[in-house]
Amino acid sequence: MRRDFSNVSFDFASSRDAAPSIFSEDVLKKTGKMIEEIPVDKIVEYRREQDQDTSLLIFRDYSSEKLKRLAEDVQQHGVLEPVLVFKNENKQFELLAGKHRTKAVKLLKSETNDIKWNTVPAIVYTFEEVSKNDWALGDLIYVNTNVLRREGLTFSEMGMAYNRMFTAYAHVGSSREKDANELIAENTGLSVSKVRAIRNIVPEKLIVPFLEMTDDHKLSLTVAGQDLCRLSKTSQQLVYDWAELQEDRERFLSKYLTKQNVRVLCTTEKEHALTEDELNALLEEDKEEFKAP
Question: The whole model's pTM is what?
Fold first, then answer.
C-alpha cells in the first residue's frame, strides 16, 4: 500500500528535461513561501553537504572558468532564479539549492564592490521544516535540484544522489523499497528498473575501475547495475587484475563482462571463492577472442 507523501512540502515531480520552476506561483502558494532578498554574506553551505556520515558531497563543483562564465551571465541578466535556503540556529542561511549562483554573486561583489550584489533573491525555509524526519526535506531539496538541473552527471553521481533520495523518502513514510524507487523514477523521468540499476553504481557496490568504466560508458549500465554489483568487490578486483595482461584491458572487459558471463561468475562465487584458474577455465573462448595478436 502506498504511503501518503503529502507532508513533503516541495513539489519535485518532473523529468530532467522539464524541471519545474522552483519559484512558480503554484509552488510558492503550495509551500506558503515568498521570494525575499537575503544578505549574500550570511549564506553558508548546507551542514550535511560535507558531513562524513551523510556523504552529501556528491556533485562536483564548477571549474573556475565555468563559475566565471556564470558570474558574467549573472552580471548581465541578474539572478533570475532564487536560491533555496533555511535559517539556522545562528541566524545564518544554509544553502539547499543555488550554490553556484551564490558563489557567482559573491565573486561579483568582491570584484565590483557594487551594492547590488549584497543580496540575492531566496525562498527561505525554517530549521524545523528541513530538519524533521532526519533532514528528509533538506536532503530532498539539495539532491533533487542538483539532479534535475545539472547537465553531464555521471552514473556514479546519480547513484549516490538517488540513494540519498531513497533514504529521505524512507524517512517520510515509505515502508517498501518499491515506493521510494517509484517516486525517484517519477521525479527523474526514468524507469524504475533504470533507477534500481543506477542506485548500484556506487563505491559500496563496485570497485573504482568498474565505476569509472560505467561512467565512461565502457561498461553496460545494465550489466554493472544489475549483475556485476552482486559480485563481491574481492572477486571484482580479481577479474580486473586478471585482465591486466590484455593489450586493451577496458576493451577486453567491456566485451567479456556480459550479463551471461557475470551471472556465471556470481553463481560460481556462491559455491566458493573465485580463482584465476577458474576464470581461465570458465571463459577461455571469450578470452582467446580478444587476445592481442
Answer: 0.69
